[in-house]
Amino acid sequence: MEMPPDLTWRVLDHDGFIGHMGPVALARAGENDWRFRLDLEKRHMNMGGVCHGGVSLSLLDTGMGGAAWQSADFARCATIQLDSHFIAAAKEGQRLEGKAWIIRRTAELAFVEGELWAGGRQTMRASGIWKYLSKG
Predict the structure, then answer these.
(1) Quick check: pTM over 0.85?
(2) In this structure, is residue 2 part of a structural domain?
(3) Do strands 77-86 and 10-12 pair parallel, antiparallel, or not at all (unpaired)?
(4) For 66, which of 11, 26, 75, 100 could close a Cys bridge (C-beta 3.0–4.6 Å)?
(5) Nearest CA to 53 among 127, 123, 128, 129?
């Protein structure tokens, strides 16, 4: 997967879970095109020496949720369903790069698809649903 040049990256690094995993960077690449990335370190590996599945799933959840969040003018949202398929392993030192796009959005829900790539190979695909939360 190629990243479009000159993206404006927003670093999602804070005291919560993403701060422990990241930093994760998110960018809008087009009208319905979001990109995200994480540089894989030793702490992201499982006992088999490849990227832990939970890291990949968390990155997709974050990137796809970020797409739902930005597509609705930064409305808070929560994952209510996430279906994933592991395809290949990513390794330490690689950049795990993701892409997300909105399939459909209503006032209450966003239906999102996404994928991860590392070292020129697709490593994961997912689809999910995000619910927009009321203010309060």
Answers:
(1) yes
(2) no
(3) unpaired
(4) 26
(5) 123
